[in-house]
Design goal:
Length: 71
């Protein structure tokens, strides 16, 4: 798992996080593998609603909640 810590991060991990945010209703559109401002804002909203630090960084704690809590 690659840490997604800046606007403009790219790659498969960015796409996976985007797709999960789309699936959960936090982000609309298509996962394009570019973690832009809309993706960061959606991630911050997810983090805030799930008791995480709303910093827009997809680190280990965020990944754990994002991909396990809703299975």
């Amino acid at each position: 798992i690659k840490l997604i810590d800046t606007v403009g991060s790219t790659g498969n991990d960015a796409r996976l996080v985007q797709q999960r945010l789309i699936d959960l209703g936090y982000l609309s559109g298509v996962a394009d593998s570019i973690f832009g401002t809309a993706s960061v804002n959606a991630l911050k909203e997810f983090q805030a609603k799930n008791g995480l630090s709303a910093d827009g960084i997809a680190g280990a704690s965020t990944y754990q909640v994002l991909f396990r809590r809703y299975r």
